[in-house]
Amino acid sequence: MASKVLFYYQRLAYLFDTIKNETLPQRELANRFSVSTRTIRTDISALNDILGDYGAQVDYTKNIGYQLVVTDPIRYATLPITQVIEQVPRTSKERVLALLIAFLTQSNFVKLDDIAGEWFLSRSTLQNDIIEVKKYLDKYNLFLENRPYYGMRLIGEESSIRACLTDILWQRYMTEDLITVNRLCKTILNDIDLEYLEKILQNQLERFELKLSAEGRGYLLYSCAVSIIRITQGHELLEYQVEKINTIVISAVSEISEDISYFLGGVLSDAEFNYLCAQIYSRTIIDSPNQSKSLALINHILSYINNTYHYNLWEDKKLRQDILIHISSMLSRIKYQIRTTNPLLREIKQYYPFAYDITLSALTNTEQYTESKVTEDEISYLAVHIGVALERNYSAGHERYAQILLVSELGNAALRMIESKIKRDFPHIEINRILSYREYEQLANIKEDFVVSTIRLTEKNKQIVKISPFPTPHQLEQLGRLAMIDRTMPYIIEHFFNEKFFFIIEQSMTQKDLLKNVCKKLKQAGYVDVDFYPSVIERESIVSTLLGENIAIPHSVGLLAKKTIVTTILAPQGIVWDKNKIAHVIFLLAISKDEYENAMRIYNLFVNFVKERSTKRLLDSKTFDDFCAIVKDSFGRLP
Questions:
Q1: pLDDT for 173-203, tens place per residue?
Q2: In a 3-state reduction of DSSP, which class is residue 636?
Q3: Which of 77, 276, 464, 512 has the highest CB neighbour count under 10 A?
């Protein structure tokens, strides 16, 4: 451990150890140590005061980060550090992971007082971490037994413990957190020879022509390693039943069982043999007995998306091929209660909420196809395929063509000639209406983006471009300049947001009361019917609509609104949204079937708010105009 005299406080020692091993930018260091960038700069200055006496310093390179530079190796060798700094978890996230490993790998009781002493923490701090540990374990039907004077220990099925341990390793591997993966391999897997195990699996999979995705092979490697360690530690499965397993898989597992006797000292028991069969079978891309169910589920998903959201993906062969592969394996995993974890679940929900929500809605109440409820992790994998298909087939949904009002007193033939000229030269312009001078004068305001006229008009609320029956180059240039303006942003602000549905809530209120009150106002204003509020509550009960950064986007299952409106609610005091989480900015979406093509653009705006951490800025809005200014600014940075 680093000398306490050398480093004035513990964080300095950890910071030095981190920078010594890798070059990192200021923001990443701040995130890792849960401090501000200003604190990091102060710490670096303190480090350099110490390191200056030992022929070294921490330098900063723009766009690269901080790195340790040794100018005098001889003096640096005298730096009084005798061993690598002990890995005591510093953040709540690290403590939760360490506690999970402790409970999952120990059969004995674990005392929080002992851990608190080792980590230099109060017991109350650990109690808060235990809440997160219990929540994580609950996904695997595992729970903690608390016995007075003894401590806490894990209770649950051995197969669930293995699934949890494998997922912990796999999540860190997928997020390329290799430092943590290496540390966990030492702790969980006792430095088992993963390269040798990988060769065993790869050789037999290739020999029997069993196809697994790269992710499937990677997960299987960690799953087998965890099983081997658990067996050698005396946690062998006593019973595990499977049925209708492919004979090729059985043959492959027979060979693998003999090969891994190197680790076990003998072949697998019947229960362990069956368990390994299920692990491989559920991740193998093969024509299985689930094929008919898989096709039925795919047809249900595509039909639901078409009927509810009006996106027709029936003819997308690439989508069908991709989700057939995933769903066939998914049904096997569900059948054998094999849980798969998507390490990017949070990011998919946060940055692709529209695709995730469509997929989530499509998979609600599908037990007739899946036998049990589909997990969030499985849904998020499918959401990626659906999202890519939506972008592939409906990329035009991200932009809105200019809508024009054509006013003319010319005869039918001349009018058609002008129409043809506009459509030929400006295919991104849509002529929404053609009116006479008299009809135009009777309008109170214009809903189109601008007006094109062959006669002189009085301007109302939209700009007018006057053209002749044979438009001049100058007139066409004016028309083109207006048409090229991005109409999406002003259109969405004008049509989707309304000052009457902009609220600042100062008083304390429950989530249910808030949604009920707002939905009542929407119904009174004619935007929704009575079925909207129950649908919003149903959607919230499936999975929380909290995006991140205390921003929530509640909405109905499907497009139930009669007219589209986004209700904006700013709650400085916060609304309890998802158990112990708080929402400060709430956008209640009521989207009609007529506006489905703009739905992705709305979601993109809210995702941008999350990315830019705009919550505080939004809460500073005192008026609707303040809010609209922030929306316009955020729209300006959308891709």
A1: 877 677 788 888 988 998 899 999 999 999 9
A2: coil
A3: 276
Tokens standing for residue 492:
């969405």
User: pTM higher than 0.85, yes or no?
Assistant: no
CB proximity list for 297: less than 8 A, separation 6 or greater: 327, 331, 366, 369, 370
Torsion angle, alpha carbons of 104, 108, 109, 115, to 10: -70
Do 584 and 576 contact (CB within 8 A), yes or no? no
Burial readout 226-239 (b: 16 or more C-beta within 10 A, e: otherwise): bbbbbbeeeebbee
Q: Give CA–CA dist 201/199, Å, rounded.
A: 5
* Record: fold of 92-156: Arc Repressor Mutant, subunit A (1.10.10)
Say yes or no to pLDDT of 84 above 50.
Answer: no
Q: Is 5 exposed, middle or buried (0-12, 13-18, 19+ CB in 10 A)?
A: exposed
CATH 1.10.10.10 fits 10-76, yes or no: yes
Does the pLDDT value for residue 1 go beyond 50? no
CA–CA separation, 400 and 598 (whole Å): 8
CATH 3.40.50.2030 fits 490-635, yes or no: no
Q: What is the CATH number of domain 291-393?
A: 1.10.1790.10
pLDDT of residue 290: 53
Per-residue model confidence as pLDDT tens digits over 576-587? 998 778 999 999
- Quick one: 137 exposed, middle or buried, by C-beta within 10 A (0-12, 13-18, 19+)? buried
Position 37: which residue type? T
> 21: closest CA among 85, 73, 111?
85
> Using CA atoms, how far apart are residues 582 and 539, in angstroms rounded to an integer?
18
Strands 450-453 and 402-407: parallel
